[in-house]
Amino acid sequence: MFTGLLVGSVVGTAVGILMAPNSAARTRRKIKHEVLGAQRKARMAIEDAKDKAREVVQDVSENVKGTVTRRMKNTARRLKA
User: What does the alpha-carbon distance between residue 51 and residue 46 come to, in Å, rounded to a whole number?
Assistant: First the structure.
């Protein structure tokens, strides 16, 4: 979903710039500016996604460790009984 929004935003901006009555040099500067802005936003989105993925991996890891520890303790108790 985010990818579609990003692509739509870039395409819409590019069409708007190309349709505006400006000199070629100014149009190129505007396109460059917009592309750099889109790249920056994409990098930020990627970093956010990486951070979220790290959090999810950490949470899952902690949950698995807790479950394994509980099961090992329960098994050890049953074997002693």
Answer: 9
Q: What pLDDT was estimated at residue 1?
A: 62
pLDDT in tens, 29-75: 888 898 898 889 889 999 999 999 999 999 999 999 999 999 999 99
Which tokens sit at 77?
């108790």
Residues 42, 37: Cα–Cα separation, whole Å: 9
C-alpha–C-alpha distance, residues 31 and 18, integer Å: 8
Residues 6+ apart with CB under 8 A from 2: 45
- The whole-angstrom distance between residue 76's C-alpha and the CA centroid of its chain comes to 43
Per-residue DSSP letters for 15-71? HHHHHS---HHHHHHHHHHHHHHHHHHHHHHHHHHHHHHHHHHHHHHHHHHHHHHHH
